[in-house]
Amino acid sequence: MTESVPSGDTPLPALPPHFDPSEPVPRLRRELATGPDGLSAREAARRLAVHGPNEVRAKAHSSFVRELVTQLVHPLALLLWAAAGLAFIADLAVLGWAILAVIAVNAAFALLQERQAERAVETLARYLTEHTLAVRDGRPCTVESRDLVPGDVILLERATRFPRTHV
Predict the structure, then answer these.
(1) In a 3-state reduction of DSSP, which class is residue 60?
(2) Which of 26, 38, 146, 162 is deepest in the core (most CB within 10 A)?
(3) Distance CA 111, CA 106 (A)
(4) Over 50: is that where the pLDDT of 7 sits?
(5) Do 147 and 45 meet the contact criterion of CB atoms below 8 Å apart?
(6) Residue 125, CA distances (Å) to 21, 28, 53, 58, 117 in order
């Protein structure tokens, strides 16, 4: 059975929510609308316009106060605020203070975890390669990693650093 690969004028389907890279290659090619010859340069340019550059975006650091407020007004935190208020109204001050402590500890851990995750992403981004060997128009060519698009066929060798990917 032959795979049908859409031409550059065929609308690009959105990546299915059930996309699984461990699926058989023919099925992945069908879902990503690509083939063993890769994408045409025209189709790659179109997909780049649709999906945008393939890069890790640096998150603008917001102020500590703004991040703290975000954690304190999170839906679960709001429920805990209400519980603390009800505890104080019911003259259960010890319980109210315990709930407020839980809110504070939760906010502190969430802030710490977010900061660590941001640093990890920034560190990983430094290890990503600038250029990648991809198959375009049936020929291997070097492209900037930021210009990779869903459906690109990339060639890897042993000890190759991986490019960033949209998926």
Answers:
(1) coil
(2) 38
(3) 9
(4) no
(5) no
(6) 22, 26, 14, 9, 12
Return d(Cα 52, Cα 49) in angstroms, integer: 5
Strand order in the sheet with 131-136: 139-144, 131-136, 153-154
Q: Residue 119 burial by CB count (10 A; 0-12/13-18/19+): exposed, middle or buried?
A: exposed
Give how far the C-alpha of residue 134 lies from the chain's centroid of Cα atoms, to the nearest Å: 22
Please give, one letter per residue, the 3-state secondary structure of 12-50.
CCCCCCCCCCCCCHHHHHHHHCCCCCCECHHHHHHHHHH
CA angle, 7 then 8 then 14, to 5°: 95
Distance CA 112, CA 151 (A): 37
Q: Name the CA dihedral angle for 12, 17, 18, 20, rounded to a multiple of 10 degrees.
A: 70
Residue 15 CB burial class (10 angstroms; 0-12, 13-18, ≥19): middle
The predicted-structure confidence for 75-106, as pLDDT tens digits, reads as follows 999 999 999 999 999 999 999 999 999 999 99
Beta bridge partners of 134: 141, 154
